[in-house]
């Protein structure tokens, strides 16, 4: 039996294992037929597919991928104002804003800033996922479903 590194409980399981053991795929097909009063014959086929999860699996689910669009837009607007300030201060010393240096400066600051913003947002998402993979569930987190989780592990 595994022991939780935080609380030492022997009723502990990794969140990723609990999630996987309590999640299953569902694929079902139904075929039906019938005969009407007038002698007409009908046949129908229906199918469905999806995922079935226990409440425990939902509780142990990995973090949802965050939507960083709003944060990225705010950071990019801030970056634009930083660029505008630096452009007014620095480009005036090295030539006009319409010069090739001014265009290169815009590309470096705004393009480079966008790459840095995207990189930082992805690193944050990876850090959350690693934390989930290393996370444990024990005791009250498993709730009354402890016996169900133990029987499937």
Task: Give me the secondary-structure topology.
Layout: E1 12-14, H1 15-21, E2 23-35, E3 41-53, H2 55-59, H3 69-94, H4 100-134, E4 136-138, H5 146-152
Antiparallel strand pairs: 1-4, 2-3
What does this entry show, briefly?
The protein has helices at 15-21, 55-59, 69-94, 100-134, 146-152, and strands at residues 12-14, 23-35, 41-53, 136-138. With 153 residues, it is of the alpha+beta class. α3 runs antiparallel to α4 (100-134).
Keywords:
single chain; flat; two-stranded antiparallel sheet; 5 helices; 153 residues; 2 domains; 4 strands; alpha+beta
What this model shows, in words?
This protein is α+β, with helices and mostly antiparallel strands and 153 residues long. It has two domains: 12-61 and 136-152, no CATH class; 69-131. 52% of the residues lie in helices and 21% in strands. It is built from five helices and four strands, in the order βαββαααβα. The protein has a two-stranded antiparallel sheet. The protein is flat, with a radius of gyration of 28 Å. The protein starts with 11 loop residues before the first strand and ends with a helix.
Multimer state? single chain
Total count of strands: 4
Major sheet size, sense and barrel closure: 2 strands, antiparallel
**What's the structural domain tally?**
2
Shape: flat
Number of helices: 5
Rounded radius of gyration (Å): 28 Å
């Amino acid at each position: 039996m595994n022991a939780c590194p935080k609380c030492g409980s022997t009723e502990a399981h990794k969140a990723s294992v609990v999630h996987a053991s309590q999640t299953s795929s569902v694929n079902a097909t139904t075929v039906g037929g019938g005969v009407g009063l007038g002698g007409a014959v009908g046949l129908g086929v229906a199918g469905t597919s999806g995922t079935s999860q226990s409440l425990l699996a939902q509780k142990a689910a990995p973090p949802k991928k965050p939507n960083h669009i709003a944060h990225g837009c705010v950071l990019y607007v801030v970056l634009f104002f930083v660029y505008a300030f630096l452009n007014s201060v620095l480009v005036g010393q090295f030539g006009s804003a319409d010069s090739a240096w001014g265009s290169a400066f815009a590309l470096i600051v705004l393009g480079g800033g966008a790459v840095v913003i995207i990189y930082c947002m992805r690193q944050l998402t990876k850090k959350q996922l690693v934390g989930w993979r290393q996370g444990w569930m024990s005791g009250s987190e498993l709730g009354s479903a402890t016996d169900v989780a133990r029987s499937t592990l």
